[in-house]
Amino acid sequence: MVLYCDNCFEPFEGERCPHCGRKKAREARADDLCFLTEQNIIWGGMLAGALEENGIYYVAQNVLGAGLAFKTGLLSERVRYYVFFERLQDARDIVTQICPSPDGGNEDGFEEDDFEDEESFENEEDGSEGGAEE
Ligand SMILES: [Zn+2]
Q1: To the nearest whole percent, how much of the chain has pLDDT over 70?
Q2: Is the domain of 15 the same as that of 70?
Q3: How far apart are CA 76 and CA 90, in angstroms?
Q4: What total of structural domains would you count in the chain?
Q5: Nearest CA to 50 among 11, 10, 97?
Q6: How far, in Å, from the CA of 20 to the mean position of ligand 1?
Q7: 109 lies in a domain?
Q8: Are residues 25 and 40 in the same domain?
Q9: How confident is the model at residue 73 (pLDDT cuts 50, 70, 90)?
Q10: If you measure from the C-alpha of residue 4 to the centroid of ligand 1, how many angstroms do you get, rounded to a whole number?
């Protein structure tokens, strides 16, 4: 069963949200808005186009706000994209196809992982924290 943290806008499996540690989560529903990715406006624009082409409804949220972007430069403007849970996997596939890894690093790993594949998710933690599962 996939749960949903409405604090992080993140579906997850297991007892608590891997991002904020929150335990109070309910079952994910098809119309739950889930955090997809954060991109600059260039990649975000391409992503938005691809989502539309695939008929995936999304919500975009500017991280800095419109006013700040002019001071810091358009390229530093970040946009967060959210999609409904029912299309999250499709949307993630699209992100993987067209967007570079966030900030060139793979700090998280969670985004790119098929989160239904528990074993590879466990391996992300290099085995040191994985004792919970028998
Ligand atoms: Zn959370």
Answers
A1: 65
A2: no
A3: 27
A4: 2
A5: 97
A6: 4
A7: no
A8: no
A9: low
A10: 8
Residue-range definition of the domain harbouring residue 8: 1-29
Do 40 and 20 lie in one domain? The reply is no
Q: Are residues 36 and 84 in the same domain?
A: yes
Torsions phi, psi for 85 (to 5 deg): -55, -40
Q: Which pLDDT tens digit goes with each residue over 103-127?
A: 544 444 444 444 444 444 444 555 4
Instruction: Calculate the CA 13 to chain-centre distance.
Output: 14
Strand partners, 78: 40
Give the global pTM. Answer: 0.67
Contacts 24+ apart (CB under 8 A), 40-45: 40/75, 40/76, 40/77, 40/78, 40/79, 41/74, 41/75, 41/77, 41/79, 42/75, 43/98, 43/99, 43/100, 44/78, 44/79, 44/81
24 and 42 co-located in one domain: no
- 58-62, strands of its sheet edge to edge: 33-40, 78-84, 58-62
Which residues are near ligand 1, the ion (C-beta closer than 5 Å)? Answer: 5, 7-8, 17, 19-20, 22
Residues 69 and 15 in one domain: no
**Residue carrying the six token digits 């186009």:** 49
**Helices vs. strands in the chain: H and E counts, helices first:** 4, 6
Centre of ligand 1 to C-alpha 9, Å, is 7
